[in-house]
Structures are given as C-alpha cells and as structure tokens.
Amino acid sequence: MNFVYTRSNIFRGFLIYASGDTAAALLQNQFTVTRMLGMMVLGATLYAFEIPNYFRWLDGKLVKTNSLKNALQRTLLSLAYFSPLWIARHMFFIKLFSGNFHEISWDLFRIAAISFVVNLPVSLSANYLIQNKVPYRHRFMASALFSAIMAVYFALAATWFK
Questions:
Q1: Nearest CA to 154 among 16, 28, 11?
Q2: Over its length of 162 residues, how does the chain's per-residue pLDDT go in tens digits?
Q3: How far apart (Å, rounded) are the C-alpha atoms in residues 120 and 126?
Q4: How many angstroms separate the CA atoms of 158 and 143, rounded?
C-alpha cells in the first residue's frame, strides 16, 4: 500500500485541529501558546498522515456500494478508529501540550469512554456521512472539521465527566 501524506492534508490538519482545540481552550480559559503550537504540529503530522491512510485502507477493504450493510460496516470501522482509545490519546496530547502533566493518568481513558458513549449518536451520524457520502479526497477535511467541533466537546467533556 502506498501511503498518503499531502501538503493539502498537512495544511488542513495544521489549521483545523489547532482551530478547534484553540476554541475549546478559550472557552475554558485554558489557552496556552504551547498547546496551540502542539496541536498545530499534531494536526500537520500524526493526524494528517494517520487519518487519510486509515480512510484509504478502509476504501480498499470495503469498496463503496449502495448496500446498507456496506455503509454500516464503513461507519463502524470508522468508529473503531475514532474510539475511546483515540480520544484518550487526543486528551493525552492536550494535557501534554498544556503542561498539565499531573492530569495525565489512566483516568483519561475513563473520561474518553464516557464522552464516546454520550456522543455516540452524533458520531454515528457524522461518520456515516463522512464515510459514505463524502468523496475520498475530501474525507480528511470533513473528518478534521468534525473533529474540530468535537474538540470543543471533548475538552468540555474532560471537565464535565471528571
């Protein structure tokens, strides 16, 4: 499999992930320059590489058809990727970039699991649309925009479900 890592995804990841997290940080009065810069780097590197390549793998594994079974499989595999483990890792990076090392613990996984379950109806709908209605070349951007919106939710969830 050839891996995808494009300038457009790097730019989109840099801008969109940092924007969503910065909005969340500002809402919680937790903005730091290191957090914003960290999210810029994370969005432009790990996320800009990992997510489009997972979507590409998913396209190779399940070729799009008009069947409901196929659409549900694509959606569930997308949710398997953006699981509580992914959310906990994202929260870990937020804590790391914020300098809140004392808040990094296994409890992040518990918080991520609760926020995942609470958000499941929205995530199911969004991932269904992204995987089954959005063309491949726009999926990373659509997913990043959804993630930016969810960054606000997950940042707030870290406080709500603490």
A1: 28
A2: 689 999 999 999 999 999 999 998 998 889 999 999 999 999 999 999 999 999 999 988 887 778 899 999 999 999 999 999 999 999 999 999 999 999 999 999 999 999 899 889 999 999 999 999 999 999 999 999 998 888 777 667 666 766
A3: 10
A4: 21
Distance CA 4, CA 117 (A): 31
Q: Which amino acid is at 67?
A: S
Gap between the Cα atoms of 30 and 85, Å rounded: 23
| Reported pTM | 0.91
